[in-house]
Amino acid sequence: MNNDPNTKIVILIPCLNEEITIGKVIQDFQVAIPEAEIIVFDNNSTDRTAKIALECGAKVIEEKRPGKGYVVSSMFRKVEADYYVLVDGDDTYSAEHVRQLLEPVMENRADMAVGARLAEYTDKSFRPLHVFGNNLVRKLVNWIFDNKLTDIMSGYRAYSRELVQSIPILSSGFEVETEMTIRILDYGFRIEEVHLPYKERPEGSESKLRTFHDGFRVLAEIARIAKAYKPFTFFGLIGLAFIITGGVSGIWVIMDYLEDEFVNKVPTAILATGLMLLGFGSIGIGILLNTISYRFRENMRLLNKIIRKR
Question: C-alpha angle with apex 183: 181 to 187, nearest 5 degrees?
C-alpha cells in the first residue's frame, strides 16, 4: 500500500438521523486509519447527528437536497483527495477493514473497491426482499456487462481520484450505488470486490430504506438499465410482444376473410395492423439506439484511457 505521507485519504459518511451510531463510526475510523480526514455529510438530520459528529472531531458539511444520490454527488464535487472511502453512518460496516478495502485502489489494481456484503452477514442484517432485489439487479448487471459481481448495492466503497473526477452522478436516492457501478463498468474502469462482514443495525437505529417504495425504484432502475445499456433487447422484446399480439389478432381476421372472402372485423384488422407496425417500429428503434449506445461506450472508454495516461 502507498505509504507516502502526502497522500490524502478521506472517509466520507452520508448521514440522516444517525445520532445513535455516528459517534462510534467516527471513533472506529479514527483508530483504524488515523491519517484520514473524516467528513460527515448531514442530509437534513433532525436529531443530534451533526453535533455528535463535530464533538467527535469530524468535519460536517450540510446537503439540503434530500436523497443519498444528491449527497454523494455533493461529496465528489466538494472534496479533493487522492483516495476516497464512502461508508454509511449506521455502523453496519467495520472500520477495522478499511485498509483492506483501500488496498486494491492504492496499489492501482482497481479504480473502485467494493466491500461486498452478501458473502458474510447475519440473518438480521438484510430483509428478504432486499436480498431478492439486490440479487435481481446484480444478475441483470452481470449479464449486461459480462461480469461476476456479488454485491451491487454495498455502501462501503473506496475510489481513486481519477474515477471520482470522471463519473457523473444523476440518481437522487438509494439507487446511487447501482448507478455508479453501472457507469464504472460501462466506462471501462476496474472494480475489485473485497468480501467483508456486514452487521445488523444496533438497537434503536432504524433503516432509511422503505421496502416497497425502494423496491419499486429498484424495478424502475432495472428497466432503465436495460433500456440504456441493452436497447436492442429492451425494445426488441417490446416489439416482439406487439408483433405476437398483432399476429394473434390478425389470425381471426384472416380466418374471417378465408371463410367469407370479406373482412367483417375491420376494427380488429386495424388493431392487428397497428400492433404489428408498432412492433417493427420498436425493433427498429432498438437497433438504432444500440448503434448509438455502442459508439458512446467506445468514446467513453477511449477517454478513460487518455485520463489514465495523464
Answer: 120
- What tens digit of pLDDT does each residue of 225-256 get? 778 888 998 899 999 999 999 999 888 888 88
Query: Exposed, middle or buried by CB within 10 Å (0-12, 13-18, 19+), for 5?
Result: exposed
How far is residue 134's CA from residue 113's CA, in Å, rounded to a whole number? 18
d(CA 64, CA 224): 27
CATH assignment, 9-227? 3.90.550.10
- Which sequence spans correspond to the domains of the chain? 9-227, 230-309
Instruction: Return the closest-CA partner of residue 41 out of 96, 87, 102, 105.
Output: 87
DSSP letters, 213-239, are HHHHHHHHHHHHHHHHH-HHHHHHHHH
Instruction: Supply φ then ψ for residue 41, to 5 degrees.
Output: -100, 110
Which pTM value belongs to this model?
A: 0.78
DSSP state of 200: P
